[in-house]
Amino acid sequence: VADDGYLRIGELSRRVGVSPELLRAWERRYALLQPSRSAGRFRLYSDADIARVRAMKASMEQGLSAAEAARHTLASNVATAVAERGAAPLAGELAEGVAELREALESFDDGRAHVLLDGFLATFSLDSVLRDVILPTLREIGDRWARQEVSVAQEHFASNLLRGRLLALARGWGRGGGPRALLAAPAGELHDLGLIIFGLALRDRGWTITFLGADTPVSTIVDTTRRVAPDVVVIAALDSDRWRSENDELAALSKAGRLALAGAGASPALAARLGAEHLDEDPLDAAERLAASR
Length: 294
Ligand code: B12
Fold this sequence. Notes:
The chain is an alpha/beta fold. About 60% of the residues lie in helices and about 10% in strands. Helix 7 (about 125-145) runs antiparallel to helix 8 (about 150-170) and helix 9 (about 195-205) runs parallel beside helix 13 (about 285-290). It is elongated, with a radius of gyration of 23 Å. The model is unreliable at about 85-90 (pLDDT under 50). The structure holds cobalamin. Cobalamin (B12) binds next to helix 7, helix 8, helix 9, strand 5 and helix 13. Cobalamin (B12) binds near residues 142, 155 and 283.
């Protein structure tokens, strides 16, 4: 045992009755253990790690798979922390977590980032996680990139990790009986995170989603509307240049069915000219309004 009460893996193993090999696997696969490093570069484990291993064992004894048990343990861990510090206002708790998430992403710590996201998702509503965690994190990282405080590597790492998480949450959003939205970003537009967030918020309101994502020519969107017969087509772009071409096709599309343009690159004038609607809010408010309008 190290002087300050921290444990090496062997001692941790004896205390919890799990082999060091298995503990290392849980650390690697699920970020269940969150060791600090000694000066000699040994991993050192804390009481919190002991508690997590015990909770993991208990969940597995109840019949959960290792992956499920880890998810459960990590999620309830954050939830418990939030409950224990119950006096702290929700907003403060979230703000603190968002800063932690940004730090994890900027230091390429995917294990920690996933643990934090698990905790948010277990504790707060999806809307709140999207609005109060994901959107501000993306914005902050983008602003810091523009000020050259974070590198392209850090920005790419962060947006890819978040995109992966959002699409994992989206699993199955194409099934179900609700009205269908076809979502795409026009040719040349690579930003599609706003669309994904919008799709998740709509799915939460009973909609079904067909997602084409970034860089989709209007002709492809038109072909797909024939295949899936959506109740609305939503096209989003952050850059107004993306609307320079294919305007005739867009006008035809809006004649054939409900079309909405969104994102910072769309304007009311453009929408009016193409006979389309304009969703000028953020993705969550827009989803709320669209869902209410049916
Ligand atoms: C992640 C990211 C990328 C990723 C995108 C990955 C992906 N799959 O989406 C990659 C690395 C590909 C990328 C590339 C580029 N990016 Co970029 N990127 C970002 C970042 C960090 C987050 C974008 C995001 O998804 N935000 C979440 C959305 C929801 O928020 P938002 O962008 O503020 O959008 C608002 C509205 O437009 C609206 N909205 C957006 N989408 C939708 C969709 C719907 C349906 C609705 C209703 C509303 C809506 O909601 C928001 C308001 O709350 C932003 C930083 C930032 N401040 O946002 C920069 C940012 C958007 N990028 C920027 C730039 C400059 C670029 C590049 C040109 C960089 C380069 N030199 O290559 C390229 C362009 C690529 C292209 N051809 O499209 C600038 C845009 C500046 C401008 N005003 O034009 C930003 C703002 C960074 C900055 N501060 O300078 N980027």
